[in-house]
Design goal:
Number of helices: 8
Number of domains: 2
Strand content: 15-25%
Number of strands: 20
CATH superfamily of the largest domain: Glycosidases
CATH class of the largest domain: Alpha Beta
CATH architecture of the largest domain: Alpha-Beta Barrel
Order of helices and strands: EHHEHEHEHEHEHEHEEEEEEEEEEEEE
Strand order of the largest sheet: 1-2-3-4-5-6-7-8
Helix content: 10-25%
CATH topology of the largest domain: TIM Barrel
């Protein structure tokens, strides 16, 4: 067993801190398509203090920076038609929010169970539908552009698990037709907003088989898109535990990144407003998207958080009795220590990464040990940008660290006060079957069980990255 070394010297100097800045960072948002209709019929919204306030400001004060709005072709009452969408988009823009536009290509709801053509398109063949998709997308986005709105993302279709615009665009009838419809939408988006990211969106994030079938299929026919979107409603799959559903969702998102080289986003998430674990469910899902390999999880959007019990919908994040947000909405604040923790288990030994002796001092050795539930084996992955994470241990609040900024094979892994230095930044590299490597940003080497040991107390070191199992880990 390796003993903790006595730290007799301090680090001579730290690398310059690197601040990750992007024009657009990780998105945290809400779909509020019902908002204007709710307000029209007299719904009032209150903030945490019980004061009436604009719901977009309440969302912003809870950590959200983005708004998603659906577009219907010729809806009853005009709700979610382009004029209604423009009015809501202007409100969102004036509040400083980023915007996602979601084309359903229907007069009403489009989802896995129904993808009904707009009444005006009912007699169109596939060529007519492709033209209609292009012109509807183009005209709608031009109207937004003329109103001063620039969406960051545009969905072409909503929850298209079996295509859209049935029966011509039903994927089980013709995957080629669906791919062509996607391309019609894509091309129209890029004609108006060349920098907007085009999303193809499926429901049931945990259903890897459907995602593979769909994206293998449309890719075969040259589908053009930038991002894979997913809906995630973890409690809807009961009796399967929500924890299992969330884990399966992350596995699928990582599979999409690896298989298709695409960014991913959760465009819809929700849990019952009165579910006792709702805050934990949503917090965990936010963390899951942040943990997507190589930083390719773009963000997460709560679906209609303000709409609890509106039209019978109960998966919002508002208390219908008080008109105030529930604690679930606080998950988007991501306050300190809000990142869920996990054990990190070796594929080689089945032991877990452990701070030896539960030490709390800088320089305490990091080893492998039989997995248990104590806090010295509980780690949170906290994003630093560019796909890297700090890996913080729960019992001491210190971070995994390459000791003394070593660039050499065999450099020791310890815990140390968290900083911006690259010797505390690690990337999760997908190795398949739910396992990953942890590559150091500083040295470009990987965390390794020394000498491929299988015993309690074997050291964690860095070593040139390879495919052996003593460098492969999973969340456990």
């Amino acid at each position: 067993m390796k003993k903790s070394k006595l730290i007799t010297n301090t680090i001579a100097g730290l690398l310059l801190a690197v601040t990750h800045s992007q024009a657009f960072g990780f998105a945290k948002g809400a779909d509020v398509g019902w908002l204007s209709e709710m307000e029209y019929y007299g719904t009032q919204f209150y903030n945490d203090a019980g004061q009436e306030q604009d719901v977009i400001q309440i969302l912003k004060d809870h950590g959200m920076d983005s708004i998603r709005l659906r577009v219907w072709v010729d809806p009853e009452g005009g709700w979610n038609g382009i004029d209604d969408v423009i009015n809501k988009a202007i409100r969102a823009k004036n509040a400083g929010m980023r915007i996602m536009i979601d084309f359903h290509y229907s007069d009403s709801w489009a989802d896995p169970a129904k993808q009904f053509k707009p009444a005006a398109w009912e007699t169109y063949d596939i060529n007519g539908l492709m033209s209609a998709v292009w012109w509807h997308t183009y005209d709608s986005l031009n109207a937004l552009k003329n109103a001063g709105i620039t969406p960051e993302w545009v969905q072409v279709g909503n929850e298209t698990n079996n295509g859209m615009l049935w029966d011509e665009g039903k994927a089980t009838n013709s995957m080629q037709n669906f791919a062509w419809l996607v391309n019609s939408g894509h091309d129209a988006v890029k004609d108006v907003f060349p920098n907007a990211k085009v999303i193809v969106h499926l429901a049931n994030c945990h259903d890897s088989a459907n995602f593979r079938w769909m994206f293998d299929g449309i890719n075969q026919y040259g589908a053009k898109y930038d991002v894979i979107g997913a809906s995630a409603y973890p409690t809807n799959s009961a009796p399967t535990a929500w924890q299992t559903i969330n884990n399966q969702c992350l596995d699928n998102l990582n599979d999409m990144v690896a298989r298709y080289n695409k960014d991913v986003v959760i465009t819809e998430v929700g849990a019952p407003w009165d579910h006792p674990e709702a805050p934990e469910i949503i917090s965990d899902m936010i963390s899951k998207v942040r943990q997507v390999n190589n930083g390719r999880g773009l963000g997460i959007f709560y679906w209609e958080p303000q709409a609890s019990n509106w039209n019978g919908y109960t998966l919002g994040a508002w208390d219908p009795n008080t008109g105030k947000p529930t604690e679930t909405l606080d998950a988007f604040l991501e306050q300190a220590n809000s990142y869920p923790t996990t054990r990190i288990q070796s594929r080689h030994s089945n032991l877990c990464i452990d701070v030896y002796g539960s030490g709390t001092a800088n320089g305490a050795d990091v080893v492998q040990w039989a997995c248990h539930t104590n806090a010295n084996q509980q780690w949170s992955f906290e994003p630093t940008g560019d796909g890297y994470f700090q890996i913080k241990v729960a019992h001491s609040g210190l971070c995994l660290d390459v000791f003394e900024h070593s660039m050499l094979d065999g450099g020791n892994i310890v815990q140390w006060t968290c900083s911006a230095s690259h010797n505390q930044h690690f990337m999760k590299e997908d190795m398949g079957d739910g396992y990953y490597r942890l590559r150091s940003r500083l040295s470009d080497k990987c965390i390794d069980v020394s000498a491929a040991g299988t015993s309690n107390g074997d050291s964690m070191i860095q070593w040139s990255c390879h495919n052996n199992w003593n460098q492969q880990w999973r969340d456990y």
